[in-house]
Amino acid sequence: MSDYWSKLVHTLDPYVPGEQPKISNLIKLNTNENPYGPSPKVLHALKAESTDKLRLYPDPGSDKLKQAIADYYNVKPKQIFVGNGSDEVLAHSFQALLKHDKPILYPDITYSFYPVYCGLYQIDYETIPLSKSFGINVDDYRKPNGGIIFPNPNAPTGVGLALDSIKQLIENNPDSVVVIDEAYIDFGGNTAITLVDQYPNLLVVQTLSKSRSLAGLRVGFAIGNTQLIEGLERVKNSFNSYPVDFFAAAGAIAAFEDESYFQQTLKKIINTRDKLTADLKNLGFEVLPSQANFVFTRHPDKDAATISQGLREQDIIVRHFNKERIDQFLRITVGTDKECEALISALTSQQL
Q: Please, which pLDDT band fits residue 228 given cuts at 50, 70 and 90?
């Protein structure tokens, strides 16, 4: 059947998502899902949407959702773009804002969807090496480019970049769009949304999949200058005019309205992350400083792939990236206290 493919399809190297095995009693610490369910208010809102109005198309502008986001972040609705998860928002960003004559720049160790988008949209790119401590050196991005994108905190490292450094990077590149992918920002970083009114070339992308426990609803958004948002809207409306359905919009709005639950959940995950980090260090692991809901860790004397396989045999799954510079690291999602204790017990008992 590949004879029927378009020429471009033969050149694509698609993104490989984290494994979703169908195994009972599995401790799943490989895809950075929130171990706690969404707010009860979200579940109530979803039930309320189960009416005969599902025969209708949803609001193409997602106006109520944009207003909820605007109220939460103190911006204007016209500064907001929404889509089916941050992956779709990022895809539109690559096509609308990052496809230029010069190559775009992003870290050599980062979200592995970026080169996939570049391949799909035929965008030239250059990777910028992270430092030896796996941080971003903003001066390395002071070169001609067609745009800059990076996660903050970075993925899969979990290492964050301070707002002062972000400001410096943006000011060094006034003629380029800078896209900051903040999928994990709520777990310890400071959002760059506070900078969008100051820098017209800044676009900040977030998701409700991680910190708000809504990975199954697929809601993402971008905040930036109205001209950037207009570019995204033009691409979206040339692709899918109704991306956010009734359930996704209602659930997302309810999630933003339950700040108490949101903060309680964040506190649990951060506390567990700190304990997991300490426990791993006590076993001799090196753990990078994380501002995310996962840790990135390696053992100086033990092979990461062997550790991963040994954990799998005990029904614990973590993420191993067989890639240059990080092939001895494991990315471990912060689960519940009980799940992380089981992980540490497995590592200890099996001397993994």
A: very high
> What's the pLDDT score for residue 1?
53
Query: What is the helix (H) or strand (E) element at residue 341, kind and residue range?
Result: helix 337-349
Strands (E), the chain: 27-29, 80-83, 104-107, 125-128, 148-151, 178-181, 202-207, 220-224, 286-287, 294-298, 316-320, 330-333
Record the tokens describing residue 73, joined without a space.
């972040």
pLDDT value of residue 352: 60
Q: What is the pLDDT at residue 246?
A: 96
Q: What is the CATH number of the domain that holds 194?
A: 3.40.640.10
Q: How far apart are CA 182 and CA 324, in angstroms?
A: 24
Q: Which residues lie closer than 8 Å to 203 by C-beta, 6 or more apart? A: 93, 97, 177, 178, 179, 180, 196, 222, 223, 224, 225, 228
Q: Is the pTM of this model over 0.90?
A: yes
Q: How far, in whole angstroms, is CA 262 from its chain's centroid? A: 17
Measured CA to CA, the distance from residue 285 to residue 330 in angstroms comes to 10
> Quick one: 107 and 247 in the same domain?
yes
The residue segments making up the domain with residue 68 are 40-258
Altogether, the residues listed in the chain come to a count of: 352
CATH of the domain at 28: 3.90.1150.10
**Same structural domain for residues 71 and 199?**
yes
Number of domains present in the structure of the chain: 2
Asked if 31 and 53 sit in the same domain, the reply is no
- Predicted local distance difference test score (pLDDT) of residue 48: 96
Phi and psi, residue 312, nearest 5°:
-60, -40
Mean pLDDT of the region 174-189: 97
d(CA 126, CA 329): 24
Assess whether 318 and 223 both reside in one domain.
no
* Residues 79-116: b if buried by 16+ CB within 10 A, e if exposed: bbbbbbbbbbbbbbbbbbbbbeeebbbbbebbbebbbb
199-236 burial code (b ≥16 CB/10 A, e <16): bebbbbbbbbbbbbbbbebbbbbbbbbeebbebbbebb
Q: How far apart are CA 180 and CA 18, in angstroms?
A: 22
